[in-house]
């Protein structure tokens, strides 16, 4: 937009000051200008902003709101803007009428696949700016269909950054024959991995969102079928080696595409080495992250106007060194809306030094490692925990018949929470009686649905069993969790597949 203002330096300056002063900078793109505006004073230039920024422009902006004294010049955000030379420019600040709903993961990934296909395969299509994506009718019309309406600005920005970063990686290696997120090779490899190996789903082995195929897909599938036939326990390593070779030849590429948080996308190739001696050994104390009980976080205070506390607990692990990376595990119900109970999920986000959502960590693998390290008491099974306040306390609030206290009820968790607080868990209150009362109150909340408070207890129990590992094993276990969340191979967990990550 600033480039489009051209030589109109006063207009360009005032637009720049306006964008910098917006009260809501939550979106990657603060405003979208009409690309068809030709710079003429005879055509109004329409600039779209969200409701909060539109209200600021109309009512509070020191640059634009002064024009409200002339209703004809400023109606619904329209200003008759005068520049040096006497030519009047009409600018219409248009409020976005409908805030786009949160896009599904499927929409996001299908959009990425489509943009990459257009950028790489279509020789006439070049996206040199975000606006190029919007201006290209074929590209944008399909994005509208994928998102079933308005395409969120932040995802257009992400798509531009993704294809720009990957342009040199893939351009010149065409023709690629297949870009798919659903069906095709994605369905084939997902079935191979879950049927033949101990992975509950494909993403537990390889988080690739899309696959790029160059060559004969049926031939590749036939070669993989030969690798996995029979009962060879080493077949998963042979499959990974095969895919590493194909990745290096740019014939089969799995790509994990994450939302871009900055202006420039980053690219990383993961699990591409075939030399197991090069893998991190998490049993080596020098390779461990500094995991202590101070990494545990749990809030127990119920906010004013609420009837329950937040259901999640967090495990926040920071790396050592000058460029600190933070891995934030949100531990919560896999299905918060369930009325029958839900097991836990571990969603990890990397912060600092180019952060990205890492996705769900394979909980079964995490629990299995904890068991291998000597703590077998924790099970990710919701039916092992109380579902109601009555089960938790062992009382029926004066009603008969009496409900006995659950094995992991109030007495058990009073001890668990006190142990965690004494060990320096980060929390918003250390008053154990208040905490117990808030657990009971949360159970009675209409939002609980026998799921949310129970999952809070499960998360606290998980922390307690981590504590029982002792200092050395806790560091090793936490380090394992970081690598598992990223699906990065270590000597202990060496079965993850190769992929490229754009974030």
Shape label: globular
Class from helix and strand fractions: alpha+beta
Give the strand order of the largest sheet, numbering strands 1, 2, ... along the chain.
Answer: 13-12-11-10-9-14
Radius of gyration: 27 Å
Mean pLDDT score: 85
How much of the residues is beta strand, in percent?
Answer: 5-15%
> Largest sheet, if any?
6 strands, mixed
User: Strand-and-helix sequence, N→C?
Assistant: HEEHEEHHHHEHEHHEEEEEEEHHHEHHHE
Number of H- or I-type helical stretches: 15
Give the domain tally: 3
Number of β-strand runs: 15
- Low confidence ranges: none
**First-last Cα distance:** 26 Å
Q: Helix share of residues?
A: 25-40%
Q: What kind of assembly state do the chains in view correspond to?
A: single chain
What's a concise summary of this model?
Helices cover about 35% and strands about 15% of the residues.
Write the topology of this structure:
Layout: H1 9-21, E1 32-33, E2 45-49, H2 51-59, E3 78-82, E4 88-95, H3 105-121, H4 130-135, H5 137-147, H6 153-170, E5 178-180, H7 184-196, E6 210-213, H8 217-228, H9 235-248, E7 252-257, E8 267-270, E9 296-298, E10 313-318, E11 326-333, E12 344-351, E13 356-361, H10 363-372, H11 389-393, H12 410-422, E14 426-427, H13 432-444, H14 452-468, H15 471-486, E15 499-502
Parallel strand pairs: 2-4, 7-15, 9-14
Antiparallel strand pairs: 1-2, 3-4, 5-6, 6-7, 8-15, 9-10, 10-11, 11-12, 12-13
Helix pairs in contact: 3-5, 3-6, 7-8, 10-15, 12-14
